[in-house]
Every structure is written in structure tokens, then in C-alpha cells.
């Protein structure tokens, strides 16, 4: 399964409105999980089994909650049993199609 999620404080205590520190702690948890992942400016996508993926999301959310009394969490999942390595293969299929057409 692939799960894209975004977790951040609902309000920043930083003068410039940045939530980078809290988000960095969440990303550190994802990295330390050992699961395949990609992070971009809006979401982090991780790949794994249901329980392991959602355990990481929970831990990342807890890390942000530790620095903010209100947290925003957005989750989108692609549940496709029996398919691994979709983090890269889904993108490659699109790239292959674009090159052929």
C-alpha cells in the first residue's frame, strides 16, 4: 500500500509562519522507519503494509502534537494488495507511456 500524508501544526509559533521544525521531526520518524518513502513540498508518501505504515503516521503525528496543541493531518491511500515497489513503478509506467506516445 502507498500512503501519502501531510502532518503539520495548525498554527505556527514562528514569526514567519514556518512549520519546518515540526515537519522535520515527522520526516525524521519516516526516515528512521526503514520503509520506502518520498518527501516533496506537500506530502510524504510511504510504502508498506497497513499496520506498519499507519504506525509511522501515528508516530509522526505524535511528534508534531508534542509541539502544537492543534495538528492538521491529511491522508490518502492507494490500497492494492499483492503489489510492491509501487512508489517508483507507478511513476515509471506513466513516464514509459509518455515516451511511447
Automatic annotation (TrEMBL):
SUPFAM superfamilies: MTH1187/YkoF-like (SSF89957). Pfam families: Thiamine_BP (PF01910). It comes from the Bacteria. One of its GO terms (cellular component) is cytosol. Transmembrane segments: none annotated. Residues 3-95 form the Thiamine-binding protein domain. Signal peptide: none annotated. Belongs to the UPF0045 family. PANTHER family: UPF0045 PROTEIN ECM15. This is Thiamine-binding protein domain-containing protein. It comes from Nesterenkonia cremea.
Amino acid at each position: 500500500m502507498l500512503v501519502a500524508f501531510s502532518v503539520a501544526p495548525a498554527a505556527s509559533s514562528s514569526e514567519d509562519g514556518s512549520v519546518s521544525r515540526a515537519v522535520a521531526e515527522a520526516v525524521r520518524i519516516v526516515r528512521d522507519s526503514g520503509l520506502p518513502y518520498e518527501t516533496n513540498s506537500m506530502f510524504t508518501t510511504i510504502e508498506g503494509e497497513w499496520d506498519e505504515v499507519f504506525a509511522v503516521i501515528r508516530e509522526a503525528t505524535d511528534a508534531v502534537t508534542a509541539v502544537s496543541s492543534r495538528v492538521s493531518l491529511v491522508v490518502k491511500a492507494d490500497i492494492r494488495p499483492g503489489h510492491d515497489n509501487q512508489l517508483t513503478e507507478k511513476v515509471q509506467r506513466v513516464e514509459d507511456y509518455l515516451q511511447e506516445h
